[in-house]
Amino acid sequence: MSLNAFLASLLGAIVLGVATFVAAAVIEQDDQSRADLIDVLIATEDIPTCATSEDWQSSMTLERHPPTEVPEGALASTSVVSGQVMAQGVQAGDMIRAQMFTKPGKCDPNN
Q1: Is the N end or the C end of the chain the one with fewer CB atoms within 10 Å?
Q2: Would you call 4 exposed, middle or buried from its count of C-beta atoms within 10 A (0-12, 13-18, 19+)?
Q3: What is the pTM of this model?
């Protein structure tokens, strides 16, 4: 093997090694970013004021968001508000928060 061929092979191996290292770092960072996401319920359609749990449960889905985008009181499960009604109307795309619910009989449909 000539010196030029050896140097070309060595340079190729170095470039391949650096590319592999960079790719691994990017994948690790992406995995870490996904791990930092938290579950939050999102309204899939508009939910009217005083909607019962039978009405609103089918109007929500679980999504993952960065903690900095999730407001205080955001819910990841409906279990803590089961049996309650919507105290306010909710628009499709809104994150669902505990403050949006009230006990049946305490709901004002004019709100």
Answers
A1: N
A2: exposed
A3: 0.66
